[in-house]
Amino acid sequence: MRRMKALKWVAGMMLAGAVATGVAHAGQIVVGQVAPMTGLEATQGRAYAVGMELAFQAANAAGGVNGNTFALVRKDDGGRPEDTVAATKQLLAEQKPLVLAGYFGTRNINDLVASRILEQDRIALVGYRVAEIRPESPLLYSVRATLRDEINKLTEHLATIGITQLGLFYEENKGAPALLAAADEAAAKAKATIVAKAGYAVGSNKADDAVAALVKAKPQAIIMVSTGAAAAAFIEGYRADGGKAQLFAHSGADVEQLLKRLSEEQMHGVAIAQVTPSPYKISNRLTKEFIDLVAKTAKLEVPVSYSMMEGFIAGKVIVEAVRRQKGKPSREGITAALDAMDSYNLGGYVVGFKPGMHSGSRFVELSIVTGAGKIRQ
């Protein structure tokens, strides 16, 4: 009996030592987000944040990852590029996040990359939205399909229904030449022609000139590569001026935002490329997990949306990158884990990265707005 008690005492001491060691290495992992929490794109920025928080709360409720829990710290840039850079510097200095996530805006991302903050602090940015075809950047990781993938999907679909005369509405940013070239290439492959291209100023939603140009050109269909605010302004003006073309938007236009700003009549028949599975129906294990978590949440900050699903995916990728590290998580460890994440299946949605290839998905499907203002795949 004495021997048994002694063995139990030793086992207890060993367990206590293991627990103490785990606590010593455990901590809170801060994820930093600088995005529009106010302004034209605030709904998307906040929805993306809520999606990440759902993923982090699920990981925390399960005991964390290797003894670590997750916390999201947000800062508002109002969509202004200069504020994105300044807020990121402040975030890095004060909260010292392990990783950044959920950024928005073409100029915002370009200015952030040009500032070299990511390289100087050796920190990765996982999950972002831009309206351009941009080159790969060493510390930027996208969890969505590329804009090129979306344009190819849209033009291929149009070709199958006999639509060959296209218009293009786009943001006049630094990446516009690459976008226009990609659109021409995709149209040529589909044996179609872009008969008119009309842009709008970066950071605005002034679409009057573009509306006039595309109404005059009379294409059969118009592809919109723009923010949600600009797409809403274009659709409103185009419908009001008698435009008859079918309207197709890339995923950044955010169907929920359009439905909120425009009438059912204006939105009827608008098709939008989606780069995540629908957040409204269970189609795989990922969507079931998301919908179950939403149902358990007492009060969501913003309504469920595709942006929220994308944020959820980004959050799960970050959790997995931490899980794959041995010992105390580090910024360098996050980057190494992401670069080795060749084919990570989240449950029906696959994300994969390699060194020099940071566009993590090829998933694109189309949704269309019905006469009742409902979204149908």
Question: What descriptors fit this protein?
Answer:
7-stranded mixed beta sheet, 14 strands, 14 helices, 2 domains, 377 residues, Leu-bd, Rossmann fold, 5-stranded parallel beta sheet, disordered N terminus, alpha/beta
Describe, in plain words, how this protein is organized in 3D.
- By secondary structure, the chain is an alpha/beta fold.
- It has 2 domains: 22-145 and 280-351, Response regulator (Rossmann fold); 147-274, Response regulator (Rossmann fold), CATH 3.40.50.
- It has 14 helices and 14 strands.
- α6 runs parallel beside α7 (176-189) and α8 (208-217) packs across α9 (228-240).
- The longest helix has 24 residues, at 2-25.
- The protein is globular and about 60 Å long.
- The relative contact order is 0.14.
- It holds the Pfam family Peripla_BP_6.
- This is ABC transporter substrate-binding protein.
- Residues 29-348 form the Leucine-binding protein domain.
- Belongs to the leucine-binding protein family.
